[in-house]
Design goal:
Length: 494
C-alpha cells in the first residue's frame, strides 16, 4: 500500500459501542475520517451522533447484511467477540470471523485492523487466548491485508481487566493469592492502544502483519493490584498459596465481584498464561511511547473523573427518573443515587431554592439530622456545619456551604457540591434543572466514590437514611419553588 492518507477512505468500525471501539470512534471522527458503524439492532442508531457517522444495521452471522455493510469500505476495524454472550463463544467467534473475512474479500476491502491477545502458541493457551489468536488466523484468509495488534492486559477505566482488579482490591483487605496471580503480563494503557489503532491507518504496510504491543513493565496481576491499592491509599495484604486453580478462582470471583463473573470466569482462566511482548517491531515502526503501569493506573483514575463529570443524569437514567436497584447504580467505582420531580415552572424559578441551600436556609428536610451529621464530623476532626455560606442568595464556584464546597455552578441549570466532611471516600451532591415544553425537571443526584470495603459498607449502611432524607429534600425544594413562584405571581396581580 502507499502512504496516502486514509481520511478520504471509508472506514468500518465494528464494536463501536464496546470498550475499545467506543473510545476509538471519537478519535477517528475528530481526525476527519469517514466512518460507518455496524450495529446489530435498529435501536442501536440511538447510540451514535448521526451527523458525524453513518450507521449500518447488520450482523456478522448474516452474510447478506454483512455484504451491504462492507460495500465501499476501504479499512475495517474488527472488534467483535462473544465471550460474554455464549458458553460456546469459540465456535460463534470463528463463524463470525469466517463470514467477515469472506465478505471483505467479496467487497474488495483493502485492510482489516484487528485487536487480539498476546500469548505464546507453544503454551497451553486458555480458550480465551486461543480463540483471540485463531480469529487473527481466520481473518488472514481474506484477500484484505490484516494488521493484528496483540495486547496483554489493557488498563483503563471500564476495561474488564482493570475493573476486576478494582473490585477485588476495593472489597478485600486480605487476598489469598494463588500461583496465577504471580504470572507475568505486560499491561498497556488504553490511550496507547488507541494511539496504535489510529496511527496504523496512515501506515504503509506491504503485507499482513502481527504487532505485539505492551507497556514498558513486565508485572503480575498481584503487582497491579498492589500498585492500584497504593494509588488509592489502601493497605492490602496478599497471602501467597500454592493452590487454588483458575477454575476455583473464577468461582470465588463470582462471589466477590458478581458483576464481572459472567465473562470474568472465562478471562481469569487466561491468567495462567504469560502475556509478554517477544517481538518489539511495534516500538520501532510506530511513534507510540507506551506509559508505565503506574502512569496507566493514574491516567485511568483521572480520566474516569473527567468522564464522570460529563455525565448527564437525565440521559443516564430512564425516563422514569429513578434507578431500579437498591443502593443506587454503579458507574465505574462510583455509586449513584438519583431521583427527579417535575414542576410547572421555568428553570430560573425551579433553581431559586437550590441556589439558597445551606446556611440559614437549611437543607429543606431533616435539618436536625444534618446538624447531628455535622456534630459527628467535628468529633472526628472534620469541618462540621459551622461554616454556613458566604451569601444567602447566590453561590459561586469555590464557596463553602456548611460541610460542602461548591465544585460547579451554572446559573439556573446546575449546582454540584463536593463533600468536605470526613467520609471513607469522596462524595458529591448535584442538582440539575432542565426546562422543556413549559415544564421543568429537577434532578437530585448523590454520588459516592468509596475507598475500600469500609467505604462500601458506609454507603450501604446509610442508604436507607439517605433515601429518606434526599427524597424529602427534593420534594420540599420543589414545593418551595412552586410556593415562591405563586407568591410572586400574587404580588404582581395585586
Amino acid at each position: 500500500m502507499n502512504s496516502q492518507t486514509n481520511t478520504s477512505r471509508k472506514i468500518l468500525l465494528t464494536g463501536a459501542t464496546g470498550y475499545v471501539g467506543g473510545r476509538l470512534l471519537p478519535r477517528l471522527v475528530s481526525r476527519g475520517h469517514d466512518v460507518r458503524c455496524l450495529t446489530r439492532r435498529e435501536s442501536g442508531r440511538e447510540n451514535f451522533n448521526l451527523d458525524e457517522v453513518e450507521v449500518s444495521v447488520g450482523n456478522v452471522l448474516n452474510m447478506d447484511s454483512l455484504l451491504q455493510t462492507l460495500e465501499g469500505i476501504h479499512t475495517a476495524y474488527y472488534f467483535i467477540h462473544s465471550m460474554g454472550d455464549s458458553e460456546d463463544f469459540e465456535k460463534t467467534d470463528r463463524k463470525a470471523a469466517e463470514n467477515f473475512a469472506e465478505a471483505c474479500s467479496r467487497q474488495n476491502v483493502k485492510r482489516i485492523v484487528y485487536l487480539g491477545g498476546l500469548g505464546n502458541e507453544a503454551d497451553d493457551l486458555s480458550k480465551h487466548l486461543r480463540s483471540r489468536q485463531e480469529i487473527g488466523d481466520v481473518l488472514r484468509t481474506s484477500t484484505a491485508q490484516v494488521v493484528e495488534f496483540q495486547a496483554s492486559i489493557i488498563i483503563g477505566s471500564g476495561s474488564l481487566s482493570f475493573e476486576m482488579i478494582r473490585a477485588l482490591v476495593e472489597r478485600l483487605p486480605v487476598m489469598i493469592c494463588p500461583k496465577w496471580v504471580r504470572v507475568l503480563a505486560q499491561p498497556i494503557a488504553i490511550e496507547d492502544v488507541l494511539a496504535y489503532l489510529v496511527e496504523v491507518l496512515d501506515k504503509p504496510v506491504s503485507d499482513s502483519r502481527i504487532y505485539e504491543i505492551g507497556g514498558p513493565d513486565a508485572v503480575s496481576y498481584g503487582d497491579i493490584m498492589q500498585r492500584y491499592a497504593d494509588q488509592r491509599r489502601l493497605t492490602r495484604y496478599m497471602i501467597p498459596v500454592p493452590f487454588l486453580t483458575p477454575y476455583l478462582s473464577s468461582l470465588w470471583l463470582g462471589l466477590v465481584t458478581p458483576l464481572y463473573s459472567r465473562v470474568g470466569r472465562k478471562l481469569i482462566d487466561s491468567l495462567r498464561n504469560e502475556t509478554l511482548v517477544t517481538d518489539d517491531s511495534a516500538a520501532h515502526e510506530f511513534s507510540v511511547v507506551p506509559r508505565s503501569v503506574d502512569e496507566a493506573i493514574s491516567r485511568a483514575l483521572v480520566n474516569e473523573d473527567s468522564e464522570f463529570a460529563e455525565t448527564r443524569w437525565s440521559d443516564a437514567f430512564s425516563s422514569g427518573g429513578e434507578q431500579k436497584s437498591w443502593g443506587g447504580v454503579r458507574f465505574g467505582s462510583r455509586l449513584v443515587d438519583s431521583r427527579c420531580r417535575e414542576v410547572p415552572l421555568t428553570a430560573a424559578e425551579a433553581f431559586a431554592p437550590i441556589r439558597r441551600i445551606g446556611g440559614s436556609t437549611g437543607w429543606y428536610y431533616g435539618d436536625w439530622l444534618w446538624k447531628i451529621r455535622g456534630f459527628m464530623d467535628l468529633l472526628v476532626g472534620g469541618v462540621g456545619v459551622r461554616r454556613g455560606r458566604r451569601d444567602p442568595e447566590n453561590v459561586r464556584s469555590g464557596d463553602t456551604l456548611d460541610f460542602w464546597r461548591v465544585e460547579e455552578v451554572v446559573p439556573d441549570k446546575l449546582l454540584r457540591l463536593a463533600a468536605e466532611m470526613r467520609v471513607p471516600g469522596r462524595a458529591w451532591l448535584e442538582f440539575e434543572v432542565t426546562e422543556e415544553e413549559g415544564k421543568t425537571t429537577v434532578r437530585q443526584t448523590a454520588i459516592f466514590d468509596p475507598v475500600g470495603l469500609f467505604g462500601i459498607l458506609y454507603w450501604y449502611s446509610l442508604f436507607p437514611l439517605h433515601e429518606f432524607v434526599f427524597r424529602g429534600m427534593l420534594r420540599n425544594i420543589c414545593k418551595a419553588a412552586v410556593g415562591h413562584a405563586e407568591r410572586v405571581d400574587s404580588a404582581k396581580a395585586a
